[in-house]
Design brief:
heterotrimer; A alpha/beta (147); B alpha/beta (321); C alpha/beta (566); A: 147 residues; alpha/beta; Rossmann fold; four-stranded parallel sheet; 4 helices; globular; B: 321 residues; five-stranded mixed sheet; three-stranded antiparallel sheet
Chain lengths: 147, 321, 566
C-alpha cells in the first residue's frame, strides 16, 4: 500500500470481537446458522462454554483490557437454561459489570448480553451483523491509549 | 454524651478481668498527634493505651481475620461502618460470632487529616488533640484552640454515612445516633461522574490508573478482601502480569471492585491507604449504587441476606446491547 | 511437567471447509504455534482414514494433546475422543476447533478473511489444549431397583413395566388401597365400563407380582443421594422402612378442586363431577328431573389460568348418563369452551347432543347465577347465541372443577430436590423434548402430578417414565462426563459462594480431612450430582473451585491468544 490516493478511504477497520456461547443454546444456534449457510461478517470469534454462567466477569474485563474491540455473552433465554438457573446469574453479573465498564469510559456497545436459542440461527446471524456494524462504527478499542 | 478514652479503657479492663475476652483490638495514639493506630492487647494491664477520638479512622474488623485460629475470645471496637464489615465477614463464614466480643461506639464523623491541616493552615506538629464537639471538631493547637465545622474536614465516607450506629455489637458505649445532619444524596459524586461523556471518563480513569503503583495497599487493608491466596498473586491462572501498566492496573481495580461487590460498605480505608491518592471509593460507590438500584441490596445490614450475585429474581433486567 | 506436544489435524471436509478456507495455509500456521509438534490436513478427519491418521500421528510424533479443526464438537467430539483413547491418549487431552459451521460455511464470500479467522480459531484451540489435563470419568454403579411414588394407574403401569423387565420395584402408596382416583369413578368413557373392573386387573397384577414390593399405606419420609444410589426412608404405618434404589418415578396424581363458587358446600344439591361419580357408584343419587352442569368452575381464571383437560369429557359423559338414567330429564351443560379433541371425543359430543343434552355457552364476564334458598332451584344464564337471559329449572347442579396439585407436592419436591412449576404441579426437564424426566438425573415423572391427564395419558406416561428409568437400570453404570467442578482445599476460604450458586446442590461446606488442613471448612463437590455448568467457577473469587475442561487458565489462554497477548 505505497501509493495511496488521499481521497481513498483508509484500510477499513476490522474489529476483533469475542463471543462466549453456551453449548446448549447459543453455540447450537451458531451451528445452525452455519448449517443454514447464513452469511455474516468475519469478525466474531466464538469460545464455547457449557453455560453462559461459566463466563467470569473478570474474563470480560481482561478481554477488553487486552484491546479486544467487543465482547459478547450469548446464552439461553431465561427459563430455558439447560442448568435451570445459569443465565439468571449471568444476567445479574452482566448488568453490574456493564454499568461499571461504562462508568470508567468503555462504550456500552463493547459488551453485550443476548439470548440465542438453539433454533435461532437467524437471531445469531442478526446479532453478529449488528454488533459488527456497531463496533466498526465505534472504531478500535483505544481505552488503554487514552492518557 | 460523648464516649471518652477513659470509658473505653475501663470497659476493656473489666472485660479482661471477668474473663470475657483474651485479646482486644482497639486504637492507640500513632506516630503523631493526628494519627491513631490499631492497638493489640493481651491483657487489661496496658488498657490505658487505648484511645477513642475523631481520629479513629481504621476499620479494625480487618484484624479479626488474624485471630481466626487463636484461642480465646477477641474483643474489638467497631464504629457504624466497621460493624457492617463485621456483618459481611459473618456472611462469608470468615469469622465466628461467638469468638468475637463487639464493643460498638456510635460515631459522628472522622477527621480527614489532610483536609484539617489545609483548613487550619497548620502542620501536624502544631496539633495537640482533636475532640468531637457536636457539629464541629474542637482542635487543641499549641497556640490555642480552634473550632472547625465538621463538614469542612470530614472524611469522604463520613460525608455520606447512613449508618453511624453499629448494627451488631455485644455492648454499645454512648448513645445511638440515628442519622448525621450533613448527609444528603450519598451518590451525588457518583452521579456527577456518570454524567461525563465516555471520552471524558476514559481520560479520567486512564489518568488515575496510571498513577497506581500496584502496592496492593487497598486490597491488603480492605476488611472484606479475605482470600488468603489472592488471584492477583497467582501465576496459574495468570489474570494480570507484574507489569505496572495501565491495562494491568485497570484489570486489577475493576476485578477487585467486582469481587467486593455486595460486600464493600464504604469504610474508605482503601482510599485512605492509597499512597497515590486514587479516588478508589468512586468505583466501589458506583457498584454499591447499582446493586441498590438493580437489586434493592445493601451490604452489611442483614447477615441472612444473600449476596446479590448469588441469587436472582425472575423480573431482573434482561438482555441488552 | 511433561512438555505439551500438540498435534493439529485440520479437516478439509471435502470442499465444505477446503473450498473456502485455505487449509494448507492453516496447517503451516499451526506448525509455528507454541507447543505444536505436528500439524497435518485430512480430507475427512471423521473418516476411517482420518481417524487412523490421528492414531498414527499420536504414536509417530509422540503427541500428548490433539486438536482437530473441523466441524462442530456437538457431533463428532465423542468420535475423536475415542480415537485418542484407542491410541492410548486420555480422551480429555483432546480439543475441538470449529472452522466449518462457525467459519467456512458462513463466510463463503470471504475466503481470505475466513482463512485468517480459521488460523485464529486454531491458535485459540491450541492455546487451550496446552493447558488440558487428563481426566477420569466418574463412574457409579446403579442399584437395580426402582421406587415409584403413587399407586394410581400411572404408578402401577410404570411398576408393572419395570417389574416385568426383571427389576425390583418399591411401590409406595399413601392410601390403604391401590387405584388412585380411578377407584372413585363410576364409569369410564367411552365404553362406560366400571373402573373397578379395569383397575381391578391391574391391581391384582401388581399385588401378585413377585418383583413388586408394596408399601401401603406409606409415605416417603426422606430421600437422599443421586442417580443409581438413592437412600430412601419410608414411614409404613408407624414403622420406618429404609431401602436403596437406583431410580425414582413420581406418580402421585392430583386432587379435584372443591370450589367456593356456585354455593357449593352450602346447598345440598350442588355437587362436583367427582361427587356425582361417587354418588352414582354408591347408588345414592336422589331422583332428578332437571340437571344443570357448569364447566370451568374455578378453572381458566386469573388465579388458575390453565385448562384441566379431563373435565369436559367427564361432564359430557355424565350428562349422557343422566339422560340414560332418566330419559325425560332435562340436562344442560353450561360451558365456556369445549375440549373435545380428536376423533372419538368429537363424535361422542355429537351423539350426546343428539341424545338431547343441551349445551349453552357462557362467558366469564357473565357467569351463571344459582338461585334458591335451601336448595338450588334454578340457574340463570345469559345465552349469547339467542341473546336472552334464560332461567333453567334445576334440582341437581354439577360443577366441573379442575384437577389441582396435591398439597404434599411441595414437601415432596423439597425432599427429592425436583422443581415445581405453574399451579404447584411438578415441572419436567423440557416441555417438548423431555416430558417424563426431571432435570435431576434418575428421577422421572408421570401422570396428573405433572399436568392433568386422563387414564390413557396416565398409563402412556407411566410406560414412558418406566422406559426412561430403565436405561440407567439396564446399563448398570452411570458415567459422568469429566467436566465437573473440583475444589482446591488449600485455596478455598470456605465462604460458601459456590454452594449458594450451584443449581443442583452438588456442593457442600465440610471440614477438610486432608493432612495439614484438618478442621478447615472448605467446599466439596459431589461429582455424581455435578452437572458441569461452571457457575461455581465463575462465582469463586479466588479460583479455588474450577471446572475441568473449562478452567480459568484455559479460558484466559484463549482470550490472550486471540488478543495477541502472551
Amino acid at each position: 500500500m505505497k501509493l495511496q490516493d488521499t481521497k481513498e478511504v483508509q484500510t477499513e477497520f476490522k474489529p476483533k470481537i469475542l463471543a462466549f456461547c453456551c453449548n446448549w443454546c447459543a453455540y447450537a444456534g451458531a451451528d445452525l446458522a452455519g448449517v443454514s449457510r447464513f452469511q455474516m461478517p468475519t469478525d466474531v470469534r466464538v469460545i464455547r462454554v457449557m453455560c453462559s454462567g461459566r463466563v467470569p466477569p473478570e474474563l470480560i474485563i481482561r478481554a477488553l483490557a487486552n484491546g479486544l474491540d467487543g465482547v459478547m455473552i450469548l446464552g439461553c433465554h431465561p427459563g430455558e437454561c439447560h442448568y435451570s438457573e445459569g443465565n439468571y446469574l449471568t444476567r445479574r453479573r452482566s448488568h453490574v459489570l456493564k454499568r461499571l465498564l461504562m462508568y470508567i469510559g468503555i462504550e456500552p456497545e463493547r459488551f453485550q448480553l443476548r439470548w440465542v436459542s438453539a433454533a435461532e440461527a437467524a437471531k445469531f446471524t442478526a446479532v453478529v451483523k449488528e454488533i459488527t456494524d456497531k463496533i466498526t462504527a465505534l472504531g478500535p478499542n483505544r481505552w488503554v491509549d487514552k492518557r | 454524651m460523648k464516649v471518652s478514652s477513659e470509658e473505653v479503657q475501663t470497659r476493656v479492663k473489666k472485660l479482661f478481668e471477668d474473663g470475657t475476652i483474651a485479646h482486644f483490638i482497639g486504637y492507640e495514639t500513632g506516630s503523631d498527634s493526628l494519627r491513631v493506630t490499631p492497638c493489640f492487647l493481651k491483657s487489661g494491664q496496658a488498657a490505658s493505651r487505648l484511645v477513642w477520638n475523631p481520629l479513629c479512622a481504621n476499620n479494625l474488623s480487618k484484624y479479626l481475620l488474624d485471630f481466626k485460629n487463636v484461642e480465646g475470645r477477641v474483643g474489638i471496637i467497631v464504629k457504624g461502618c466497621d460493624s457492617r464489615s463485621v456483618v459481611e465477614l459473618l456472611k462469608e463464614n470468615q469469622i465466628n460470632r461467638d469468638k468475637v466480643f463487639i464493643v460498638g461506639i456510635p460515631c459522628s464523623g472522622i477527621v480527614d487529616r489532610e483536609k484539617l491541616l489545609e483548613v487550619l493552615g497548620v502542620s501536624p506538629g502544631d496539633v495537640v488533640a482533636v475532640e468531637d464537639d457536636g457539629d464541629a471538631f474542637l482542635v487543641t493547637l499549641k497556640g490555642g484552640n480552634q473550632r472547625v465545622e465538621k463538614e469542612k474536614v470530614l472524611r469522604g465516607e463520613c460525608l455520606v454515612c447512613k449508618y453511624p450506629t453499629p448494627l451488631v455489637y455485644d455492648v454499645l458505649l454512648g448513645e445511638a445516633i440515628s442519622s448525621l445532619p450533613w448527609v444528603g444524596d450519598e451518590y451525588s459524586l457518583v452521579k456527577e461522574q456518570e454524567a461525563l461523556s465516555s471520552e471524558e471518563k476514559a481520560l479520567y480513569w486512564n489518568r488515575e490508573f496510571s498513577q497506581c503503583i500496584r502496592c496492593y495497599a487497598c486490597r491488603n487493608i480492605c476488611p472484606v478482601c479475605t482470600c488468603p491466596e489472592c488471584i492477583f498473586d497467582k501465576k496459574a491462572p495468570r489474570w494480570i502480569t507484574k507489569a505496572n501498566d495501565v491495562s494491568e492496573n485497570l484489570v486489577y481495580h475493576l476485578v477487585r471492585a467486582f469481587h467486593v461487590a455486595g460486600k464493600c460498605i464504604d469504610c474508605g480505608e482503601c482510599e485512605r491507604a492509597c499512597p497515590m491518592n486514587i479516588p478508589l471509593r468512586s468505583l466501589n460507590k458506583k457498584v454499591e449504587k447499582d446493586l441498590l438500584e438493580l437489586f434493592d441490596y445493601t451490604a452489611g445490614i442483614d447477615v441472612e441476606q444473600q449476596p446479590p450475585l448469588t441469587t436472582y429474581q425472575l423480573g431482573d433486567l434482561d438482555e441488552f446491547l | 511437567m511433561i512438555t505439551p506436544r500438540i498435534g493439529v489435524f485440520v479437516c478439509n471436509c471435502g470442499t465444505n471447509i477446503g473450498g473456502t478456507v485455505d487449509v494448507p495455509q492453516v496447517v503451516e500456521y499451526a506448525k509455528n504455534l507454541p507447543y505444536v509438534a505436528h500439524a497435518e490436513s485430512n480430507l475427512y478427519t471423521c473418516s476411517e482414514e482420518g481417524i487412523s491418521s490421528i492414531k498414527h500421528g499420536i504414536k509417530e510424533y509422540d503427541l500428548n494433546r490433539v486438536v482437530v479443526a473441523s466441524c462442530t464438537p456437538r457431533t463428532h467430539q465423542p468420535l475423536f475422543r475415542n480415537a485418542c483413547a484407542d491410541a492410548g491418549l486420555n480422551p480429555y487431552l483432546f480439543e475441538f476447533v470449529n472452522i466449518r459451521e462457525h467459519c467456512s460455511w458462513i463466510h463463503r464470500q470471504n475466503p481470505g478473511e475466513a482463512t485468517e479467522k480459521a488460523k485464529e480459531l486454531v491458535k485459540m484451540g491450541v492455546a487451550k489444549a496446552r493447558w488440558l489435563d487428563a481426566q477420569e470419568e466418574f463412574k457409579s454403579e446403579v442399584y437395580p431397583t426402582a421406587m415409584i411414588i403413587g399407586g394410581g394407574v400411572a404408578g402401577m403401569s410404570a411398576a408393572l413395566n419395570l417389574a416385568n423387565q426383571g427389576f425390583e420395584v418399591h411401590l409406595v402408596e399413601k392410601e390403604p388401597e391401590l387405584g388412585g382416583r380411578l377407584l372413585k369413578l363410576n364409569r369410564i368413557f367411552p365404553i362406560n365400563q366400571d373402573p373397578s373392573e379395569l383397575v381391578g386387573n391391574i391391581v391384582k397384577s401388581v399385588e401378585g407380582h413377585s418383583k413388586i414390593r408394596l408399601h401401603m399405606p406409606a409415605v416417603v419420609k426422606s430421600a437422599s443421594g443421586y442417580i443409581g444410589n438413592f437412600d430412601i426412608s419410608v414411614d409404613e404405618g408407624g414403622k420406618e422402612v429404609s431401602f436403596k434404589v437406583g431410580v425414582i418415578i413420581v406418580a402421585t396424581g392430583a386432587q379435584v378442586l372443591k370450589p367456593e363458587l356456585y354455593r357449593y358446600g352450602e346447598l345440598a344439591n350442588v355437587l362436583t363431577q367427582l361427587d356425582l361419580e361417587q354418588r352414582l357408584k354408591d347408588g345414592e343419587l336422589e331422583e332428578f328431573k332437571n340437571v344443570v352442569m357448569i364447566n370451568c368452575v374455578g378453572a381458566r381464571i386469573p388465579e388458575r389460568p390453565y385448562c384441566s383437560r379431563v373435565c369436559c369429557m367427564t361432564a359430557i359423559k355424565n350428562a349422557a348418563l343422566m339422560k340414560e338414567i332418566n330419559p325425560q330429564a332435562k340436562v344442560y351443560v353450561l360451558y365456556r369452551d369445549l375440549m373435545t379433541y380428536g376423533v372419538e371425543f368429537e363424535e361422542y359430543y355429537r351423539e350426546v347432543k343428539e341424545a338431547g343434552v343441551r349445551f349453552i355457552r357462557y362467558t366469564p364476564s357473565n357467569l351463571p347465577q344459582v338461585m334458591g334458598a335451601e336448595r338450588v332451584e334454578s340457574v340463570r344464564i345469559y345465552d349469547e347465541l339467542m341473546d336472552m337471559e334464560l332461567e333453567l329449572p334445576c334440582d341437581l347442579l354439577v360443577l366441573a372443577t379442575p384437577l389441582i396439585a396435591n398439597d404434599d407436592n411441595e414437601e415432596l419436591s423439597k425432599m427429592l430436590k425436583v422443581p415445581i412449576g405453574d399451579g404447584g404441579f411438578f415441572l419436567e426437564a423440557h416441555i417438548k423434548l423431555r416430558p417424563v424426566e426431571f432435570p435431576m438425573d434418575g428421577i422421572y415423572v408421570s401422570g396428573s402430578c405433572r399436568w392433568p391427564a386422563d387414564i390413557r395419558e396416565s398409563i402412556a406416561q407411566g410406560y414412558a417414565a418406566a422406559s426412561e428409568a430403565v436405561i440407567p437400570l439396564r446399563q448398570g453404570l452411570v458415567k459422568v462426563e469429566a467436566i465437573t467442578a473440583t475444589v482446591d482445599p488449600k485455596i478455598c476460604k470456605g465462604c460458601g459462594t459456590c454452594v449458594l450458586v450451584c443449581p443442583f446442590d452438588a456442593i457442600e461446606l465440610k471440614e477438610s480431612e486432608i493432612r495439614g488442613l484438618e478442621g478447615k471448612i472448605v467446599s466439596e463437590v459431589n461429582t455424581a450430582l455435578c452437572k458441569g455448568c461452571g457457575l461455581c467457577a465463575a462465582a469463586c473469587p479466588n479460583g479455588a473451585i474450577q471446572q475441568r475442561g473449562f478452567t480459568d487458565t484455559q479460558l484466559i489462554s484463549m482470550v490472550n491468544a486471540l488478543s495477541g497477548k502472551r
